[in-house]
Design goal:
The chain is built from 9 helices and 81 strands. It is mainly β. Helix 8 runs antiparallel to helix 9. Keywords: Membrane, Repeat, Signal, Transmembrane, Transmembrane helix.
């Protein structure tokens, strides 16, 4: 086997050097005999084989060898790195010789030499991230580890290789190591590269004359396990460069090396560089122990197994120190130990990895306990009970202590725990098994010191005689429990004749069907060693064929007599049942046939007296099979109704669907057949047979038809059976109605003989015909099928697209012409006029220039239109500038046309003519748009201006205007300041509020918010928005105004304390006809001057008004009482009573000089009551007037 020299890593997580040019030099007796190099592939490189030099053959290194090389290990390598053979000439293999260097834990390197039956090994740590020169010297004179018994090769060649795993695989991945300048000499004393640091002949010997050496320290016993590592650690802590060890027991440190008279020194010595010392680690010593029992203590002299580990694959010597003076040192745990005395005993385990010391300890509880004895005697007997599968057990326990016993019945089930007293106890448990067979019943009894068991066998038997019916080809099968020896001892017999059997699975015993006798009884016995386990009587019966059912229907539609014939093939022991489906007495008949040798024929009749659907069912059955046949019998009903429904379609290419429903879908009998006919109105017809669904109602039938041409068709349907029929009809339109037509022109001014192009848009309608009247007597017609350019005559060319048609026309004389388009199809027509009228002029010599027009102070676009409210008047003035050759400026004419711009889809906008907005040759330069003239939306209004008499000198421009909603108009009837008497009714009439954008239902979608507050808060709250007011106010009531018409939401709020009781206010509150009324005495007594603020809101727009109210008490003057009559006209009788009572009190409190005023007020109040405004019979007023 080859010897190898390796360097590399197994896992190279960061690629530092992917390919390395490595040199190797061999020096023998001071002469360089070989120098070679190679480029590694990844981490692997074979540098050659050298069987005749010390370089590759360790047996030729008579004077030992020295090996040096530079190494740089990168630090980003996991500490759990698998061992890697960095450099080897074969010594790392168990059956090879040579040297090797193995990297472990990313920073620990093991250097070893194997020769014959000897093995030398040491460990060094190198810091990662910086280059280091590693030197190795070896001589066979140093004592090595004995390898006697290990297979050692003879005469094997030696090759120098770097980059190998511990399993001899090549390392081909990217590396985290750099290696260079490998030098090997055949002498241990020639160490190349170290001469400048430590002269071989001038090494420092402890005990000799030395200088600059710190006082040597005596190494402890534990330190002496690796004196070099601990001395290097000590010198590193002292910031010294060299560590010196004498005889493995003393450590000294120095920064320089030098000595004289070295021949006078004695003892073994070592010199170490104090670099790359690392003391941090992740090692952890674990200690586990296993007692002999599960007790929470250990008894004296009981051995305990102790195991320990550091968690890494590294050779470690463990020291086990027991507190009874026993010390065990081993590198191959576990160890066992026992204590002789009870108590809490301690074990301490220590280990050392390089300079790292690890310790772990455990406390063991040793107790000298009298554990007594388990139960003395267990007796278990079992007998078979009087019922099938029943085991009767007798358990006897002889014990000085109390015992707990459990029985296991051998089928996976156990008994409850039995608690038995000392000095002998008995129990008689019983258990019933699921099947016959052989079971092992065991008893296990436990006391405080142990347990004892007993076991017996029990044969479970089926004491019944079972009867079973099987088909001729079915095997007999039964379940049994037992092991293979139990089944080997079984015997099976049929009618006392022994037959063979087999096992279908572990518990299923089967006998072949061929061993049983057809049409007779089969007595089957299963016996185990003379004990009968099973006894079955098996009857073999044939499987019945399906009966054949034949019915002869006679008589009329309203009743039906059925003659029925049933045919059945040969069989025996047959029960034949006929169910005629009427669910009445006599509807089911049963026959028993002991044996059928040929074909059985059964004839029977049944009379049906009621309408409906019936199912006749014939069932033939015996003990092993059942077979059934059915037949439907229909007793029909009259057809009293049929209806047809459909919907219009827009194209002849579409299917027209017709839904047909018979007898209104009412609940009737099932499976009724009805003949249905349908005539589509175009000469085509269909016939259907309609069958009743299985849901007990007549489901809808859908008929489809395709029409060839446009039109309106009359569709007729009929339904009939053999006793009745009914008809229905409907109309269907095949085609689409015309819903919109528009006409526009590229210009409204042309010359005589000039070309005018108009565009007609008709997006809906099928088979549309177009008629264009150009106003000069020319009429042009075309149809929908014209889809390409067509020359109609010398002056008309039409182009038709999918939605529009472009027509050109030439006028032969001047004038103003009204152009009109009419579109029509089979279903209707629609017309539109071109706006404005076309002006045709033959005077091409215009005396005035083309005018320049602007909209005064208005600049718009489609994106930035002029925004105007619908409820206001809009004025659009036009300024015109032009010149004339004769310096006489004529009047300017103004023509207007408008289009509404509509968004018909995502990114799609169309312009449609506004026919209500069209004017021609007006003299007013200002366009006036009255309130409500335009609907909401975006409009483009185009003005065309020209000097009078110069129609072809014209200019056009457009203004975009967006008509938006106006704010609603709030209103509180009455003066800005109102006086309310405290004993009267407070009335706030808000019915005058309206939406100025509406002409009818002017309160539609308005919501009302009425706020009460102290007058002092008015000025502040006037500046707030509606939302801000609502946020700070207290909501007192929600109502609906004008409930039967516009149903407006009304909310009542207060800011501060404005009312005495909000609950009483709610009870008293009335909103009839938009008048908010309640008793004035609901106002808080400390409020004398209040503000009422009304907000009206619609679609996010809102407006506000307010009113000041002054609240007067009941001792008001007669001048104030005059106003109460006006308030009483709007009040209810209850309010009138309160008012009149207060007025009477006021009158009685006046002085005598006011008698005439008192009389006048009393007469007025009495007059109001007489008119029925304030009076009701059930109120009797005693005012003292």
């Amino acid at each position: 086997m080859n010897n190898y020299l390796w360097i590399g890593t197994l896992l190279c997580t960061v690629s530092i050097v992917s390919n390395q040019n490595v040199t190797v030099t061999y020096v023998e007796d001071g002469v360089s005999l070989y120098r070679g190099s190679g480029l590694s592939s990844g981490c692997y490189l074979n540098l050659g084989c050298f069987p005749y030099w010390c370089l590759g053959n360790i047996s030729l290194c008579q004077a030992g060898f020295s090996l040096t090389f530079w190494i740089k290990a990168y630090s980003d390598v996991s500490p759990d790195l698998d061992p890697q053979v960095l450099l080897t000439s074969g010594g790392h293999r168990t059956n090879n010789e040579g040297f090797y260097i193995v990297r472990r834990y990313s920073d620990q390197y093991t250097v070893g030499v194997t020769l014959g039956d000897k093995h030398w090994k040491t460990t060094v740590r190198l810091a990662s991230g910086t280059p280091a020169l590693l030197a190795i010297s070896w001589s066979e004179t140093k004592e090595g580890e004995n390898r006697t018994g290990v297979i050692v090769p003879d005469g094997s060649s030696a090759c120098v290789v770097l980059g190998q795993s511990e399993y001899y695989d090549q390392l081909t991945g990217p590396c985290t190591l750099e290696v260079s300048d490998i030098i090997l000499t055949n002498s241990k004393d020639t160490v190349y590269g170290f001469e400048s640091d430590i002269d071989v002949t001038q090494r420092l010997y402890l005990g000799c004359a030395a200088f600059n050496v710190n006082s040597p320290a005596i190494l402890t016993d534990s330190d002496r396990a690796d004196p070099g590592s601990f001395c290097r650690l000590r010198c590193s802590q002292l910031s010294q460069v060299y560590a010196l060890v004498s005889n493995g027991s003393k450590c000294g440190c120095t920064n320089s090396v030098g000595a004289t008279n070295t021949t006078q020194c004695d003892g073994k010595w070592s010199v170490y560089l104090v670099s790359h010392v690392k003391v941090s680690h992740n090692y952890q010593l674990t200690l586990e122990w296993t007692p002999q029992s599960k007790r929470n203590y250990t008894k004296p002299f009981e051995d305990i197994v102790f195991n320990t580990s550091v968690g890494y694959n590294v050779k470690v010597v463990y020291k086990f120190t027991f507190d009874d003076g026993i010390i065990i040192t081993t590198s191959t745990p576990p160890v066992s130990h026992s204590w002789m005395t009870p108590g809490q005993h301690t074990l301490t385990v220590s280990a050392q990895i390089g300079v790292v010391k690890l310790n772990a300890s455990v406390v063991v509880n040793v107790q000298d306990v009298d554990e007594g004895q388990p139960p003395d005697l267990i007796g278990l007997t079992v007998t078979h009970g009087q019922s099938s599968f029943n085991a009767q057990c007798n358990l006897t326990v002889i014990d000085d202590l109390s015992s707990n016993c459990v029985l296991s019945y051998g089928n996976g089930k156990t008994s409850p725990t039995f608690y038995l007293q000392e000095n002998g106890s008995f129990t008689f448990p019983s258990h019933t098994y699921d099947m016959a067979g052989l079971y092992s019943i065991s008893a296990n009894c436990i006391n405080a010191y142990g347990h004892k068991s007993a076991m017996v066998s029990f044969v479970s038997r089926d004491l019944r005689t079972l009867h079973e019916y099987v088909t001729p080809l079915r095997n007999y099968s039964t379940l049994l429990f037992g092991d293979q020896s139990f089944f080997n001892r079984l015997e099976v017999s049929i009618n006392n004749e022994k037959v063979s059997f087999f096992l279908a699975d572990a518990k299923t015993l089967q006998v072949n069907a061929g061993d049983m006798h057809d049409a007779s009884d089969n007595l089957i016995d299963v016996v185990s060693e003379g004990v009968l386990l099973h006894r079955h009587i098996v009857y073999v019966r044939s499987v019945l064929d399906k009966p054949v059912l034949i019915a002869d229907k006679t008589a009329g539609a309203w009743n039906l007599t059925v003659k029925l014939t049933v045919l059945l093939n040969s069989a025996d022991h047959v029960w034949l049942t006929i169910d005629y489906g009427t669910k009445s007495a006599g509807s089911v008949k049963t026959f028993y046939v002991p044996e059928i040798t040929g074909m059985l024929r059964v004839d029977d009749t049944m009379f049906y007296g009621n309408l409906g659907e019936y199912v006749i069912t014939v069932t033939a059955s015996n003990e092993v099979s059942s077979s059934r046949s059915q037949m439907d019998i229909s007793v029909q009903i009259p057809v009293f109704d049929i209806s047809v429904r459909t919907r219009n379609i827009t194209s002849p290419q579409q299917n027209a669907a017709f839904e047909l429903r018979v007898n209104s879908g009412q609940v009737i009998a099932e499976d009724i057949f009805i003949n249905i006919g349908i005539k589509y109105g175009d000469g085509a017809a269909d016939q259907f047979i309609f069958k009743m669904s299985d849901r007990n109602y007549l489901g809808a039938l859908v008929a489809n038809h395709t029409y060839a041409t446009w039109g309106i068709y009359r569709v007729k349907v009929s339904a009939m059976n053999n006793i009745s029929q009914d008809e229905d009809q409907t109309l269907i339109q095949v085609g689409e109605n015309i819903t919109f037509v528009d006409i526009t022109a590229t210009s409204d001014r042309v010359t005589v003989g000039g070309n005018l192009e108009v565009s007609v848009v008709c997006p809906t309608g099928s088979n549309v015909q177009y008629r264009l009247d150009f106003g000069d007597g020319s009429v042009f017609t075309f149809g929908e099928l014209n889809t390409s350019y067509q020359v109609v005559n010398s002056s008309n060319v039409v182009t038709i697209s999918e939605t529009s048609a472009v027509v050109s026309h030439v006028y032969s004389r001047s004038g103003s012409y009204k152009v009109k388009v009419t579109v029509s199809n089979e279903f209707g027509f629609m017309s539109a006029d071109l706006c404005p009228a076309i002006v045709v002029s033959e005077n091409t010599m215009q005396t005035c220039s083309t005018p320049t027009m602007t909209f005064r102070n208005i600049q718009t676009s489609a994106d930035k239109p002029l925004v105007r409210k619908r409820s206001v008047t809009t004025l659009i003035p036009v300024d015109v500038v032009f010149t004339c050759s004769d310096n006489i400026k004529p009047n300017v004419t103004f023509s207007w046309k408008g289009v509404v711009i509509e968004n018909i889809g995502v990114g799609k906008v169309v312009e449609r003519s506004l026919y209500t907005f069209c004017s021609s040759k007006l003299l007013d330069n200002t366009l006036k748009i009255d309130p409500l003239a335009l609907q909401f939306g975006l409009y483009k209004l185009t003005a065309t201006v020209s000097p009078m008499g110069n129609d072809l000198s014209y200019a056009s421009d457009s203004v975009y205007i967006n008509i938006v909603q106006s704010e609603p108009v709030p209103s509180i009837a009455g003066d800005p300041v109102q006086t309310i008497m405290l004993y009267a009714t407070a009335i706030f009439d808000i019915s005058g509020s309206y939406d100025p954008d509406l002409e009818t239902d002017t309160r539609r979608d308005l919501s009302f918010h009425l706020f009460f507050m102290s007058e002092s808060l008015l000025k502040v709250n006037q500046k707030l928005s509606l939302n801000s007011l609502v946020a700070q106010a207290e909501l007192l009531a929600n109502r609906t105004l004008f409930r039967s018409t516009t149903a407006n939401r009304f909310s009542l709020y207060q800011i501060g304390s404005c009312f005495n009781s909000t609950s009483r206010l709610n009870d008293d509150l009335s909103t009839f006809l938009g008048k908010i009324t309640f008793a004035a005495n609901n106002f808080a007594s400390n409020q004398f001057s209040m503000a009422v603020m009304l907000w009206v809101e619609r679609n996010g727009l809102s407006a506000m008004t307010y009113q000041i109210i002054e609240i007067r008490s009941s001792n008001a003057s007669l001048d104030d009482l005059g106003s109460l009559l006006d308030l009483a006209k709007n009040a209810d009788p209850d309010t009138a009573i309160r008012l009149l009572g207060g007025a009477a009190s006021a009158i009685l409190n006046q002085d005598t000089s006011s008698a005439e005023a008192q009389q006048k007020l009393a007469e007025d109040l009495t007059s109001e009551f007489a008119e029925g405004i304030l009076f009701k019979k059930e109120h009797h007023l005693t005012t003292g007037i």
